[in-house]
Design brief:
The protein is α/β, with parallel strands linked by helices and 224 residues long. It is built from nine helices and seven strands. The strands form two sheets. The protein has a five-stranded parallel beta sheet, sandwiched between helices. The longest helix is centred in the middle third of the chain and has 13 residues.
Length: 224
């Protein structure tokens, strides 16, 4: 089972990507990790990528795509894979699709988590971190994950700890708006990449607005 996963920041890509990976016994692959691994191991592609990064330039698709393809052919991908974070625009989508065809690597599904921009932004800015365990979900804008409020203070909904924290980048509206601007751009952004795949592979759209249980159930009905 080979899957491309899309969704705006705040849609739960990491969470639902893991859900699908656990179901099918496949690795969850992020392009950022591929870059770091190639650079740390000093591979030929990693050295080329590092040269661009050190200059503050974007790494060309001619380097990025071979890195990704190499990762997708490793042993742990024998039963399939779920790739998150690439492609980000139509140009990359075309190049990646052509590369998959050339290497005869089948793409089974494109999964798109659908969430409107305002809700996605609120979910990001509403995250609250438990000081004892960052894996305890708390979010002031998600009904299912609301922290416990008592005497004007918020407590972790899982363990009851007080002093919930926020991440600085979760509160950076300009950065959030920039990332969402790229994603929701239907001409040159990530949505244009998704639209490109619609004529070539089965694209499954799942509403990411409900709670984790409902979204998971809907995913399992459609991805099989």
């Amino acid at each position: 089972m080979n899957i491309l996963m899309f969704g705006p920041n705040g849609s739960g890509k990491g969470t639902f990507g893991k859900v699908l990976c656990d179901k099918f016994g496949i690795p969850q692959i992020e392009t950022g990790v591929i870059f770091r691994d190639n650079i740390s191991k000093g591979t030929a592609l990693g050295k080329e990528a590092k040269a661009y990064i050190d200059r503050g330039d974007l790494v060309p698709d001619g380097i990025t795509i071979p890195m990704i393809l190499s990762r997708l052919t490793e042993k742990d991908c024998a039963k399939g894979w779920l790739l998150d974070g690439f492609p980000r625009n139509k140009t990359q989508a075309v190049a990646f699709w052509d590369a998959l065809q050339k290497e005869k690597i089948k793409l089974d599904y494109v999964v798109e988590l659908v969430l409107d921009r305002d809700t996605a932004k609120k979910r990001i800015m509403g995250r609250r971190l438990c000081p004892k365990d960052n894996n305890h979900p708390n979010n002031i804008y998600v009904q299912a994950n609301l922290p416990v409020e008592k005497d004007g203070k918020l407590y972790c909904r899982v363990c009851g700890s007080d002093g919930l924290l926020t991440r600085a980048d979760d509160q950076d509206e300009k950065a959030i708006d920039k990332r969402h601007g790229i994603y929701f751009d239907t001409n040159n952004g990530t949505l244009s990449a998704i639209n490109y795949f619609k004529d070539r592979v089965k694209v499954i759209q799942v509403d990411a607005a409900p709670g984790i249980k409902v979204v998971t159930e809907n995913l399992f009905k459609l991805v099989k």
